[in-house]
Amino acid sequence: MKKKSIALLLMCILFLAILPVCAQKYIVVTFGGDCTLGSEDQLWDRENSFISVVNAQGFEYPFKNLVDLFSKDDLTIVNLEGTFHDSKNGKLKKAFNFRAPSDFAKILPLSKIEAVTLGNNHIFDYGEKGFSSTIKALDAVGTAWFANCRYENRGYLYEKDGVKIGFVGFYIGDWRKQPSLIRDTIDELKLQGANALVGIMHGGAEYSSFHDSNQEKMAEWLILNGVSLVIGHHPHVVQGVAVNADSSIVYSLGNLSFGGNSRIRKQAGDALLAQVKFSFDDSSNYIGHQVRLIPIHPSSTGDKTNNFQPALADLLNAQRILAGVQKDTDFILPPYEENIGCTLPFVPVAVD
Q1: What is the DSSP string of 50-68?
Q2: φ and ψ at 214, to 5 degrees?
Q3: What does the pLDDT look like over 319-334, one tens digit per residue?
């Protein structure tokens, strides 16, 4: 991605000056990374497994440290990387298969997480039976879901005060096979009146601190199809951010509550939340957005033990995490503000 031009910077400054006058409506969305709210089958009975810990501590446990933040936005969306499935039926032969009882879906509404993307590689762990069981469990607790995958092509439309934001989510393998289906979903969201669009992509090299060309291609494709914000995950570590014309890209948020591992890899001990404020004029026309990066840890233990309970990073660790983001970012990040985050410049809609 090219560096932001001086012209774009000047445009941002201009919009920041007039924003309080022209913006009448806002929608604040918090995005979290990879969530595995389950364990591998053979680990269910172990005392330190996600299943055992949640059974002992309660469904509110995993997001206890973040629920206050999630409750103050309009919408919280995470990547649900695993299944809610009460049997092993449909289990595929693969390296890792993640599963939790269907009632573990209650974790999401109790944590003020209103929607999930299922566009990832672990929603397939138990085949179509596991997928069907998962969406049934989500529907039962009132959690919205969306995905473009081998079993479903479904977007999500969020509405507030007459303003609508559309969301699509997909795994890189599905995007490569049938991008037209994702484009159809985007077009359908536009027909439904989406004022702004968000694309959530799942791909990239695992445990790499730098985004790759495949992530760039997916992001560019989404932007060409009208998306204003791209959120990425799958590498399990934080990566950089970029601005492409009037669209923002967050390449990888890293992990959130990740029940797949009882130990934290050194590279995966840091993560981000991305909280985005979408702005609209009094006629509901989308006029731009602003991204705030919030450094977190997937585990609050402070060591390699994973307690599956993500927590906000303190000042020194937050600065260190953002230094890692900076290494994969072409422009200078604004300084971190304690208890607020790293607030990127406002990105306005391009003026024709």
Answers
A1: HHHHHHHH-TTSTTTTTHH
A2: -65, -40
A3: 999 999 999 999 999 9
